[in-house]
């Protein structure tokens, strides 16, 4: 730009570093706390430098769990979260892409009403239908199951809209060409449309995986067995133990572990993630 | 807009929409309908008899000062979270939009909190500001502030607003950056040639051109503050002290959990549903306008 004097540029660098410091500070504290002795933290004497208990704390967190009698090791919680996040992300993409395909490439009675039925679910977040949904899942005997964790969250109006939008931009000639080659609707979908949607699917997957991994209220309600707990629910139960003092190093180690997969996905797939985000939300 | 090239098949399209439709009907519409029906019913304490009471649950709700307070509180939280997070994110985005060395690194370092789950955000902040062991609480006390968010309602509310705004910075930053980069650089150059200083350029050129993004983000942030702060509140204060951090969504959860009044909890859900519909409607009108312009 026109007047790019040194001073302004330094100021920008400084402001950005302050921003990064504010954003990173809580996580720094968590990492530091996860390497220290609990007694020290409980006395309010926590040091701002890493302590020497890194391996011991993480070993206990991942494989043993807190000392409270009924708690699970975090490895198990992470596995549950992973399964739930994958089921939600893959499930949402799968059922959305085929319903968008039907809506764009076929004319059938009730086509538009069905589209609107899917669309309106945008306005029904799980929070507002929480108890009736709980009751239905209970009636279907899906409490404490992966199906119960994932199914009620699996419909996706945004994904359907996104795929519909994308299919509209696919040139008609492609369909004509594959029809001349003798391909039916399923062949065309599998051989032509699916490969074309790959980047869209990848961007969506990044966002939906994080969405699934970070679910909290729903798993909190429907999981009662400790071995079905997700990491988000587990961490909350750790800080509300009544039988013993909260073991903060383990809680902080769990927080760090709970952040790792989604943050890794965001940073590694930054480009895809940013594009997917802007596309789904706008 | 309609596709010209289509397939002809009677059953296949239904088979393709069936999975999504099944999920939507069983887990979305059926429970939503249940909530609406339930909100017109009154059940006795043992669930033995149920009677249809029209709008009694709603009337009772609006006469309840606790509900009224939680409405005010929810809106206050939402605006405080949105305004603080938006203004800070905008400042950072304006800086990151400049041609600086290492700007990609800055962006990467700023966007990752998007991925942190609300309960984890809650745990991180309560740990830092825990009255007896928090690192930051130590400094606050040294500065002469009697810091105890577990007892002081205003401090508890501040804590939630700060934590929730912190998480939302990265999201707002991303959208502001995208918005800023969509503004042609020639507009700034023209303003600069006209002699407008940077601050003036920001308020007369950037800010108005960014206003659609700001409006969009305002709505998104309000929806976020309504629903996604649940995990933050539940891990940090559990609605306390007293009911001083109970938002509308938290109230649906806690009222229903205690199992006291199903009708009231359902009525609260229905009111929330209407709020979401209104907010989503605003978002879509905005998106449509953007598309046609």
TrEMBL record, chain A:
Biological process, per Gene Ontology: transmembrane transport
InterPro entries noted in UniProt: MetI-like, MetI-like_sf
Membrane topology note: Multi-pass membrane protein
UniProt xrefs under SUPFAM superfamilies: MetI-like (SSF161098)
Transmembrane segments: 12-31, 82-106, 113-134, 146-167, 248-269
Keywords: Cell inner membrane, Cell membrane, Membrane, Transmembrane, Transmembrane helix, Transport
Principal cellular location given in the protein's record: membrane
Any matching Pfam family: BPD_transp_1
Domain ABC transmembrane type-1 stretches: 78-269
Family statement drawn from the similarity comment of this UniProt entry: Belongs to the binding-protein-dependent transport system permease family.
General function of this protein: Part of the ABC transporter complex UgpBAEC involved in sn-glycerol-3-phosphate (G3P) import. Probably responsible for the translocation of the substrate across the membrane.
Protein name: sn-glycerol-3-phosphate transport system permease protein UgpE
Species the sequence originates in: Bradyrhizobium guangdongense
From TrEMBL, chain B:
PROSITE patterns on file: ABC_TM1
Subcellular location: Cell inner membrane; Cell membrane
Predominant subcellular localization, coarse grouping: membrane
GO biological process terms, semicolon-separated: transmembrane transport
TM ranges: 12-32, 75-96, 108-128, 156-180, 201-227, 266-287
Membrane topology of the entry: Multi-pass membrane protein
ABC transmembrane type-1 domain boundaries: 71-283
Keyword flag Disulfide bond: no
InterPro entries associated with the record: MetI-like, MetI-like_sf, UgpAE/MalFG_permease
UniProt keyword annotations, A-Z: Cell inner membrane, Cell membrane, Membrane, Transmembrane, Transmembrane helix, Transport
GO cellular component entries: plasma membrane
Subunit structure: The complex is composed of two ATP-binding proteins (UgpC), two transmembrane proteins (UgpA and UgpE) and a solute-binding protein (UgpB).
Role according to the record: Part of the ABC transporter complex UgpBAEC involved in sn-glycerol-3-phosphate (G3P) import. Probably responsible for the translocation of the substrate across the membrane.
PANTHER family, A to Z: BLL4140 PROTEIN, SN-GLYCEROL-3-PHOSPHATE TRANSPORT SYSTEM PERMEASE PROTEIN UGPA
Family according to the record: Belongs to the binding-protein-dependent transport system permease family.
Name by which UniProt lists this protein: sn-glycerol-3-phosphate transport system permease protein UgpA
UniProt source species: Bradyrhizobium guangdongense
Organism taxonomic ancestry: Bacteria, Pseudomonadati, Pseudomonadota, Alphaproteobacteria, Hyphomicrobiales
């Amino acid at each position: 730009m026109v007047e790019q004097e040194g001073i302004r540029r330094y100021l920008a660098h400084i402001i950005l570093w302050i921003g990064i410091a504010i954003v990173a500070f809580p996580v720094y504290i968590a990492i530091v706390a996860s390497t220290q002795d609990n007694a020290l933290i409980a006395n309010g004497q926590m040091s701002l430098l890493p302590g020497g208990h890194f391996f011991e704390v993480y070993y206990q967190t991942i494989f043993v769990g807190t000392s409270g009698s009924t708690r699970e090791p975090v490895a198990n919680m992470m596995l549950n979260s992973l399964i739930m996040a994958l089921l939600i992300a893959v499930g949402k993409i799968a059922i959305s892409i085929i319903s968008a395909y039907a809506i764009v490439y076929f004319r059938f009675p009730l086509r538009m009403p069905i589209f609107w039925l899917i669309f309106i679910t945008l306005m029904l977040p799980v929070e507002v239908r929480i108890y009736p949904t709980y009751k239905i899942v209970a009636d279907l005997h899906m409490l404490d199951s992966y199906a119960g964790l994932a199914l009620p969250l699996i419909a996706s109006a945004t994904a359907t809209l996104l795929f519909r939008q994308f299919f509209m931009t696919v040139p008609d000639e492609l369909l004509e060409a594959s029809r001349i080659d003798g391909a039916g609707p399923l062949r065309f979908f599998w051989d032509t449309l699916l490969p074309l949607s790959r980047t869209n699917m990848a961007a969506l997957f990044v966002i939906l995986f994080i969405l699934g991994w970070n679910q909290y209220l729903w798993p909190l309600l429907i999981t009662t067995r400790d071995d079905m707990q997700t990491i988000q629910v587990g961490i909350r139960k750790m800080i509300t133990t009544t039988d013993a003092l909260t073991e903060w190093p383990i809680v902080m180690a769990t927080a760090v572990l709970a952040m790792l997969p989604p943050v890794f996905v965001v940073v590694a797939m930054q480009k895809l993630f940013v594009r997917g985000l802007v596309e789904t939300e706008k | 807009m309609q596709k010209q090239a289509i397939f002809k098949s009677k059953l296949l399209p239904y088979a393709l929409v069936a999975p999504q439709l099944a999920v939507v009907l069983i887990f979305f519409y059926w429970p939503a309908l249940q909530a609406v029906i339930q909100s017109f019913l009154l059940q006795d304490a043992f669930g033995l008899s149920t009677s249809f009471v029209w709008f009694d649950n709603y009337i009772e709700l609006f006469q309840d000062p606790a509900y009224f307070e939680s409405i005010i509180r929810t809106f206050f939280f939402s605006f405080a979270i949105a305004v603080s997070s938006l203004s800070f994110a905008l400042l950072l985005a304006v800086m990151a939009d400049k041609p600086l060395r290492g700007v990609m690194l800055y962006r990467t370092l700023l966007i990752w909190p998007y991925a942190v789950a609300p309960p984890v955000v809650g745990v991180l902040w309560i740990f830092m500001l825990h009255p007896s062991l928090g690192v930051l609480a130590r400094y606050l006390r040294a500065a002469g502030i009697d810091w105890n968010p577990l007892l002081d309602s205003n401090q508890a509310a501040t804590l939630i607003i700060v934590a929730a705004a912190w998480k939302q910075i990265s999201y707002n930053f991303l959208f502001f950056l995208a918005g800023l980069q969509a503004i042609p650089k020639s507009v700034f150059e023209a303003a600069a040639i006209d002699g407008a200083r940077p601050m003036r350029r920001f308020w007369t050129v950037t800010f108005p051109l960014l206003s659609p993004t700001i409006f969009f983000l305002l709505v998104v942030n309000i929806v976020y503050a309504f629903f996604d702060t649940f995990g933050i509140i539940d891990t940090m204060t559990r609605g306390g002290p007293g009911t001083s951090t109970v938002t509308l969504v938290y109230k649906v959860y806690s009222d229903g959990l205690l199992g006291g009044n199903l009708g009231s909890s359902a009525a609260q859900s229905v009111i929330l549903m209407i709020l979401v519909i209104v907010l989503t409607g605003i978002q879509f009108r905005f998106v449509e306008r953007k598309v046609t312009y």
